[in-house]
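If your schedule permits, I should be very grateful for your opinion on a structural question. I have a record of one protein: its chain in single-letter code and its fold written as discrete structure tokens. Would you kindly read the sequence against the tokens and tell me how you understand this chain to fold? Thank you for your consideration; the sequence and its tokens are set out here.


***
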Amino acid sequence: MNLRKTFKKWSAYQQTVRELNALGNRELSDLGIARSDIQRIARDHASSI
């Protein structure tokens, strides 16, 4: 995997974690997301890039 793609995936992971962590527990609950799922969701998102 080239460096550019690796950085893009890492950046997407970091942004997703940041955005989801900024939400309150009620907002996460409304989306059907538990706070403990954030890292997995971010990993899944980054791997799809």
